[in-house]
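Go through this one:
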Amino acid sequence: MWVFAYGSLLWDAGFEPVESVRARLDGWRRSFCMWSFHYRGSEDRPGLVLALDEDAGAFCEGLALRADPAKADEVLDGLRARELVSDAYQERRLPLALADGRVVEAVAYVIRREHRQYARVDLETQARTIARAQGQRGPNLDYLTNTAAQFDRLGIHDAEIEALMQRTRSLGG
């Protein structure tokens, strides 16, 4: 079983993968398009987290994480408990192109556009939201900072994340 890590799973997978390979998912874009009412915000002051949003011309780079086959059910149960805390995400099996030329099917969590947690907000609103929100897993800014640090470590260029980091810093974040 493969899992596509494109946001917090990059730095907090919740399991020890037996293999980790750079990967690309076509037809989807990574975006701060999901309101967080639990982990990085609250109902009163929602945060924003990354989700995959379908977009025919886009692609998303991340990591393909392969679970130990003997622990695949346990890993999937853990991912579901974490990622499906609300029904804003939909679990999908999507084809990933691995950097070494293989193509694998991976579990990925994508946003449900019809869900109330789907967010289409501009960069300024994203930055202000992320700079002030906090949830069960800590400040929303930590989520952004940790994700950006992993992108730097992996050599993943994401203009949206870079612009968001710059703007939140200018807000004092």
Summary: DSSP finds four helices and seven strands in the chain. The mean pLDDT is 95. The beta strands are 2-5, 19-36, 47-66, 89-98, 103-111, 134-135, 138-139.
